[in-house]
Specification:
Layout lengths: L24 H18 L6 H8 L3 H8 L2 H14 L9 H6 L1 H9 L4 H5 L1 H12 L3 H14 L4 H10 L9 H24 L11 H19 L2 H10 L16
Length: 252
């Protein structure tokens, strides 16, 4: 996840200062559901709150009453999308037993399934990461740091406990490196199909994608992997290539 800028003196205009009343929860959820579809199909900037309200048959002002602004609505949509993805340690038990880098490989080879099975939440996460202004991006980064929706901290400690990660690097640094690199690499794997103009690489053959995944993991191993593990993991990680595709893909 990206670093977070210091908070402004006044809270952003779209942050609610009071928790919603219980009786409004159902309506808020309906608005978020409709907005998620609308943002995914139209993008952040082209989406119109009025169109979302029309779809639901409610007044535009009702949306603002619940979320404050279009930014506030998108922020809630983004949080729901990100929370729907699996955590690192949701990988099957046999994959976890194989080790830290095997878990990474397990999720990376499933990246393309996000397009088919989780297209809407993936699209929302992509918009939040690349298609919003700095004020909203700051709130997104704060949410990712505070909630850790992908379980990155627990996953890094898992790797440290197994002796697979370097212990001379601060835990928070390893977490940051993992978040930065995995997010960007997964986006590069997917956006050639979803948003061809966002990244330079175009569609690739499966064999080339596999080679890129192996190369990416080799670089990551050299950066944060314990020396002894880095020497053997490159051979062992290929054994996981044939595992089933049953588990829900995750957005890292």
């Amino acid at each position: 996840m990206s670093g977070i800028a210091s908070s402004p003196v006044a809270p952003p205009r779209y942050i609610r200062q009071h928790a919603p009343r219980p009786r409004s929860d159902a309506k808020r959820s309906r608005i978020i559901d409709a907005a998620m579809q609308h943002f995914a199909e139209n993008g952040y900037h082209a989406a119109r709150v009025g169109d979302i309200a029309t779809t639901l048959g409610i007044a535009k002002g009702s949306v603002f009453q619940h979320f404050g602004s279009k930014d506030g609505l998108f922020f809630e949509v983004y949080k729901r999308a990100v929370r729907s993805f699996s955590k690192y340690l949701d990988a099957p038990a046999d994959v976890r037993a194989a080790g830290f880098f095997d878990v990474l490989y397990y999720w990376l080879v499933r990246t393309e399934h996000l397009l088919r099975e989780d297209w809407i939440p993936y699209r929302i996460s992509l918009l939040g990461n690349y298609g919003t202004d700095l004020v909203l991006k700051r709130e997104i980064n704060r949410f990712l740091t505070t909630e850790d929706p992908y379980g990155t901290v627990a996953f890094v400690r898992f790797g440290l406990d197994r002796g697979e990660l370097r212990k001379d690097i601060d835990v928070e640094m390893i977490v940051s490196i993992l978040d930065w690199t995995m997010e960007r690499f997964q986006d590069a794997l997917l956006t050639a199909e979803l948003d061809p103009g966002l990244f330079r690489r175009q569609g690739e053959m499966p064999e080339k994608k596999e080679a890129r995944i192996q190369q990416f993991l080799a670089v990551l191993q050299r950066a944060v992997g314990a020396a002894a593990v880095s020497q053997i993991r490159g051979r062992e990680i290929r054994k996981i290539a044939a595992v089933d595709l049953v588990a829900k893909p995750k957005r890292l």
